From TrEMBL:
Xref: PROSITE patterns: D_2_HYDROXYACID_DH_1 (PS00065)
Family (UniProt): Belongs to the D-isomer specific 2-hydroxyacid dehydrogenase family. PdxB subfamily.
Domain called Erythronate-4-phosphate dehydrogenase dimerisation: residue spans: 291-379
Residues forming the catalytic site: R210, E239, H256
UniProt gene name: pdxB
Pfam families, per database record: 2-Hacid_dh (PF00389), 2-Hacid_dh_C (PF02826), DUF3410 (PF11890)
NCBIfam families attached to this UniProt entry: PRK00257.1
Chain's role: Catalyzes the oxidation of erythronate-4-phosphate to 3-hydroxy-2-oxo-4-phosphonooxybutanoate.
Protein name as catalogued: Erythronate-4-phosphate dehydrogenase
Pathway: Cofactor biosynthesis; pyridoxine 5'-phosphate biosynthesis; pyridoxine 5'-phosphate from D-erythrose 4-phosphate: step 2/5
Compartments reported by the entry: Cytoplasm
Swiss-Prot/TrEMBL keywords: Cytoplasm, NAD, Oxidoreductase, Pyridoxine biosynthesis
Top-tier EC class: oxidoreductase
Chief subcellular location: cytoplasm
Length: 384
């Protein structure tokens, strides 16, 4: 059995080595010639999987080690009876930690003593937005959720949701919807000129969903006007050929790595491995946990002199600080179009190991219950 797989899927040999022969490919340049004799195709978000890629091939199962599925023509796969699996929720914690770290930096930039004073509007309350909202609420933030599809599906919970209008009044607006172009609530260009005109200089807009959910040219225009909001982008229109003018204007710019914790990426591989085993009628013998290495930083210790905000900030940023990714991306923006696109993909391919908060033990000597609760909410392992 031939398994054609994106070379950037971690643990390919460990999970799939005894299922079939693995041929590694560059997912960005995947073409019909690469998959013609394949039985199984494993991709990431950079490969378009549709009729023009698959027609004439043997492929009978497609797995994407990602949460998003906008790169896959699901209707075509269904029509052709090709098996399919994605990795829902695999890197949700990673994205939530990305946003939390950004919010902590924003609170610092605004000179806030207590970051929970910020109101947060979450657009898209699924695996990522839902997890983020749960953590924020446990930390004491005021959180609003906007999710019209869920509101339609769950009329009994209608009061849990607000409209986008209401969200646009929050201090922080964070986008966690899939990219959709049809249906009752399409998200493509959901944040366009009109919505951007409602945001002002005391607001933060974060997009770690998909780039096309914001109209990029309207955003650039808004950022060139007075009283522009602060903007953080992890996802972009036209990746990897992103607009350098937009990079220059946003506060933090990262190369689509919000979900790139080691745990998140390994869970993505595990989920498609399990789905493939089910598809082929094979027993599931492996799990991501057995391959997870010890974290480079294993323990932090705070004395009773550490304040709540200070200690949470230090621990959160010890796990993930988006300023490093921002600095690396800005360096790649110096070349021509081709060099910039190559740089964007290289940063993603060579992404350093990043671990989630759950990998870090935190000792809190003589701490208050409030401090302990904040650390627990963020997923750290507590040692008293
Ligand atoms: N930057 C990254 O690294 C990264 C990582 C993971 C996921 N993502 C993106 O984030 C998206 C969300 O991930 P998830 O795991 O939460 O997906 P999910 O499917 O669990 O949740 C998405 C939610 O968005 C809601 N939604 C759909 N249309 C909406 C609209 N018009 N307005 C408001 N809400 C709407 C859905 O009802 C659903 O509840 C993914 O589809 C993917 O594109 C990005
Ligand atoms: O949808 C997802 O899971 C994320 O956007 C994912 O992190 C994308 O990573 P990629 O497949 O582009 O490497």
């Amino acid at each position: 059995m031939l398994i054609v797989a994106d070379e950037n899927i971690p643990l390919l040999d460990s999970f799939f080595g005894d299922i079939g022969e693995i041929r590694r490919v560059n997912g960005r340049n995947l073409g019909p010639g690469d998959v013609r004799d394949a039985d199984i195709l494993l991709v990431r978000s950079v490969s378009r999987v549709n009729q023009s890629l698959l027609e004439g091939s043997h492929v009978r199962f497609v797995g994407t080690a990602t949460i998003g599925t906008d790169h896959i023509d699901l209707a075509y796969l269904r029509d052709k009876g090709i098996g399919f699996a994605a990795a829902p929720g695999s890197n949700a914690t990673s994205v939530a930690e990305y946003v939390l770290s950004v919010v902590s930096l924003y609170a610092e930039k605004c000179g806030l003593e207590d970051w929970t004073g910020l109101s947060v509007g979450v657009v898209g309350a699924g695996n990522v937005g839902g997890e983020l909202a749960r953590v924020l609420v446990r930390l004491g933030f005021k959180v609003k959720l906007c999710d019209p599809p869920r509101q339609d599906r769950e009329p009994e919970n209608a009061d849990d949701f607000v409209g986008l209008d209401d969200i646009l009044g929050c201090d922080v607006i964070t986008l966690h919807t899939p990219l959709t172009r049809s249906g009752a609530h399409p998200t493509e260009k959901m944040i366009a000129r009109e919505e951007l005109s409602r945001l002002g200089e005391h607001q933060l807009l974060i997009n770690s969903g998909r780039g096309e959910v914001i109209d990029g040219s309207a955003l650039l225009e808004r950022l060139q006007q007075p009283s522009a909001p602060t903007v953080v982008l992890d996802v972009w229109e036209n990746e990897p050929g992103i607009d350098p003018a937009l990079v220059e204007k946003v506060w933090l710019a990262t190369p689509h790595i919000a979900g790139y914790s080691l745990e998140g990426k390994m869970q993505g591989s595990e989920m498609i491995y399990k789905a493939l085993c089910l598809f082929l009628g094979l027993p599931v013998r492996k799990q991501a946990g057995q391959f997870l290495p010890q974290a480079a930083l294993s323990q932090l210790c705070f004395t009773s002199n550490a304040g709540q905000n200070e200690s949470v900030e230090v621990a959160l940023r010890a796990c993930y600080d988006p300023r490093r990714d921002d600095a690396r991306l800005r360096l790649t923006m110096r070349g021509d179009d081709a060099q910039r696109a190559e740089g964007f993909d290289r940063l993603r391919k060579e992404y350093p190991i990043r671990r989630e908060c759950s990998s870090l033990k935190v000792q809190l000597k003589g701490s208050s219950k409030a401090i302990q609760d904040s650390f627990k909410a963020l997923g750290f392992k507590l040692r008293m």
